Amino acid sequence: MPNPVFGDTSSLRFEIAPKDPASFSMRSVDIHAAGAHLTARDNSAYVPSLLFRLDRTLRSFREQTRFRPRPDIFGELGPEAIHRLLADEAEEFAGGDEVSDLWTFLDFGDTVLHVLGFLIPTQGRLYLTVDMLRPGEGNSQAIRIVEVREQALAQSMSATLDLVAADYDGDKSSLQR
Q: What is the model's pTM?
């Protein structure tokens, strides 16, 4: 039987391996975003962290804290230029640090520490930008950019959260579902 898959590779996709009876808190989860396989080297997710981070991200979607209207501090810049400014934590923009933290995306645990992703609402659209850092070099490969829909992202994350949480026997009291 194939592993459950939620979402699509071009935007955000999770593939969940069956629960390993020998491992209480680890689960193999393959994550793809903007056409890149983010967990190609290591797909072992620490379940409590994955659940917490998915839940926190979904909560920010529900509460609209990520996408609330704000002054356009980036003017006519496109998503790649904004990604680079946020990655560099440019201080020339008022509120840049707050926006960088607010728009950070794909922070799903240690298996994606080498990934810098943002959800950038600009020019009336929502973009997912992904930068895969090269191990040990501190520099990046080409930034991947894809226009996404908030609802599609939320659906794939929610389905992943539901499946992994249902199979997890540990403490789930921090989940706000």
A: 0.89
